Amino acid sequence: MFGAPKSWRAIGWSMLALGSLSAMAPPPAHPERAGIIVPAYQHPTAGTLWAECARASSRVPLVAVMNPATGPGSEADPHYVSASESVRSAGGRVIGYVYTSSAEIPVDSVLAQVDRYREWYALDGILLDGMAYDANPVHVAWYAALRDSIRAREPAWLVVGIPGTNTLPEYLAGADILCIFESTGESYFNWEPDAWVRDYPASRFLHLVHTLSSADSMQQTVARAWSRGAGWVYVTNDRLANPWDETPIYWDALIQAVEATPASVETTAERRARLRAWPNPARRAIRFELSGDPGREIEILDAAGRLIAVITPGPFPEWDGYDRRGRSAPAGIYFARVRGSRAEPVRLALVR
């Protein structure tokens, strides 16, 4: 995993007040192509990496990770403000780094860093480094609660989790994108993802590969990532101790390789998914039908984007009109969306 202090998933949507659904959060500029997530742990004044990210954002789906001080630091850095603005204005996204210490720290301590990022920078999400990958259900629940708390603050934010190794599918509840490989190029060519990865869209997975000296080996790595079910990748010649603080010597070739790949970060199942709800308006229970990918959870949010309830998959999943604490939700406008999918959200009217 990314080590301190030098260490390091067009997802989400936004809403207008009182019931009118706004436009979906801006989709990637190239939703049919694979993308690149760059751990941009180089200060914007120290090299070219942030400028290169801005330049590439018009060509490929790109997410740059900001890490001012193994987290947001003690105050806003105007250089990161400017660098982030350049990437975002070019069509890319920028997310902020936090370290989670394998769920062995209070969730509130991580959220305090999230809130500092929200106060100081215009961002598109959060990266959770140091992610647990064991079978402890407490750890799984910790990350799911953290993701829900982040989404309650910023419904359109992307959440990327970094276990850096093969993990369990349950951890997908804690992140939109999981990095399941983070190591050297030499070890990458002898590594295989767990079989369950193939059951999920490529858009849910990221591979980070460092210590690859040649453009040829980089291109082989990019091709190998797509063939192993990863819709997101990053490759660099940079080395430990911090392999993410230099611009790759083959940057242009890397962007060309990602640009040329036939892999898609949007799967056929995601494009087909359609959510229906009835009765609507409703006084109590609302039933759902999800075509295309019925095995996903359905999230209920209020008009301010706060998560109200999570509906488990089933033949006809149903919201009983109660929130996660068992309290009756007041009359008003709500929205249902399919977790981890681009299926169109459904506007719900609850009357009492």
Question: How does this structure look, described?
Answer:
There is one protein chain. With 352 residues, the chain is α/β, with parallel strands linked by helices. It has two domains: 35-260, Alpha-Beta Barrel (TIM Barrel); 268-350, Immunoglobulin-like, CATH 2.60.40. Helices cover 24% and strands 23% of the residues. It contains eight helices and 15 strands. It has an eight-stranded parallel β-barrel with strand order 1-2-3-4-5-6-7-8, surrounded by five helices. A four-stranded antiparallel sheet has the order 12-11-14-15, covered by helices on one side. A hairpin with a 4-residue loop joins strand 11 (298-302) and strand 12 (307-311).
Percent helix range: 10-25%
Q: What structural class do helix, strand and pairing data support?
A: alpha/beta
Radius of gyration: 20 Å
Give the count of helical stretches: 8
Provide the number of structural domains. 2
Which residues form runs of ≥5 with pLDDT under 50?
Answer: 1-32, 266-272
**What is the distance, rounded to the nearest whole angstrom, between the alpha carbons of the first and last residues?**
50 Å
- Quick one: how many beta strands? 15
